[in-house]
Amino acid sequence: MSVTLESLATCFQGLLPAQLFTCSADGIPNAAYLSHVEYVDSSHVALSYQFFNKSRRNITENPQALVIVLDPDTGQGWSLRLKYVRSETSGPLFDRMALRIEAIASYCGLKGIFKLRAADIYEVLRVEPVAEEVGSQAPARQPSANPIFTVNALQTFSDRIHQADSLESLVDSVLRALEETFGFRHSMILVPAEEKDVLVAIATRGYPENGAGAEVRFGEGIAGMVAEARKPIRISGLLRGTLYALAMHREAQRPEAARRRIPLPGLANPESQLGVPLLVRGELVGVLCVESEMPYRFHEEDRASIELLGSYLAIAIQNMLLQERSESPAQPIADAPAKPPAMSELTSHASRMANPRLPERIEVVYYAADECIMVDGEYLIRSMPAKILWRLLTAHSATGRREFTNRELRLDKSLNLPEWKDNLESRLLLLRRRLEQKCPHIGLVSSGRGRFALDLRCELALIER
Predict the structure, then answer these.
(1) pLDDT by residue (tens digit) across 82-97?
(2) 122 to 6, 66, 159: CA distances (angstroms)
(3) Of the chain's two ends, which shows fewer C-beta atoms within 10 Å, N or C?
(4) What is the pLDDT of residues 54-68, one digit of tens each?
């Protein structure tokens, strides 16, 4: 081949649809669009086998095929003369292609419908430019990171990880470094929630709201797919892939398919996404996702760098949690009344005098059966962070205490925290950020490692229902 497959790496990102041409034994041609052309090695590619029954029959009769791919940077078209070799229905290659297809389909609420039936392996006999698709000479893509830049960038991340003195400073500094070093403006870190197979966002960057508390189930969107598969996913041309999935769904005429769209935390219409699992010895610590409205924003160099960063970050998060657990013992929180007074008043007069715009009183309602807190009729938070906040408020109501420690929360039997892997620090971080976003009248202020204080800026009416 005069042109190598390696030089056409940008053509295999799925940003622009490829075309597959086959011919039956009696000479009847057939054309179809492909959702995925995967690079295998220097002389082979893999095509996704999903719905193209006519193409598959033609290949059975005549194993020759032609695929046309387009370079998204230059617009140049390339024809690949192929010969069918074999089909794979399992293994790393099949898993990688299936994961990408499932990730795109999940945005349409169609997860599980677009099953990859096989990865068809073809030998590439010849590569030629397509005369009808002549591209520009100047590539449009942004320059990728050179090796020196990549090493320097990872050194920057390493320094910030070592300088972090809390989980909050760790995740915030890493997301900030992603923007300052790589230019990735939209990013988030999610961790496993108390509920099985659910992720919750604890840190985001680049979005109008901080996003703390946004939940994603395993298998939903790129974050959920990464968590479920525990493998990195890089998607370019996400919008085109989504539209392709919707079009194929209508063509397949599957009335039993789910049609709801899954809410996507972050950008409404991302064109490029990159997600990596944060793993420590096979245990899922979290998921790191970056996204962009720019097509083909994340290149292979980016994926490799972020995947390496993710391995460092996972260890750092786990070490931070273990370090927090190693505090000296403390006494459990003093018991509050079994049923707090319906109008128990908590107030910080100094805060209210400093900011006269704060309301005189807000109503905080805890729904025990649902483990949910509402503030003045609006949802604040649920699950373990809600239980923690209610315990703090009722303890203050009973004893007047404002200072607390992480250790005493762990010793508090009413919270039913697991003895190990309680993720208390991430729950407190989530609670603090939800309060900043939705209820600034109540604050959790750090007063040292493993210590914090309640900052109440108005009167609270505590009600349990």
Answers:
(1) 999 998 888 888 887 8
(2) 16, 10, 46
(3) C
(4) 888 898 899 999 999
130 Cβ neighbours under 8 A, 6+ residues apart: 68, 76, 77, 78, 79
What pLDDT, on the 0 to 100 scale, is given for residue 414?
85
Residue with tokens 């009722």: 394
Residue with tokens 């890089």: 234
Domain at 147-325, CATH homologous superfamily: GAF domain (3.30.450.40)
C-alpha–C-alpha distance, residues 346 and 435, integer Å: 16
Pairing outcome for strands 459-464 and 361-367? parallel
Per-residue burial over 320-354, b if 16 or more Cβ lie within 10 Å, else e, is bbeebbeeeebeebeebeeebeeebebebeeebee
User: From the centroid of its chain, how far is CA 274?
Assistant: 8
Q: Compute, in degrees rounded to 10, the torsion defined by CA atoms 195, 198, 202, 204.
A: -160
Residue located via tokens 């990865």: 119
Q: For the domain covering 6-129, report its CATH number.
A: 2.30.110.10
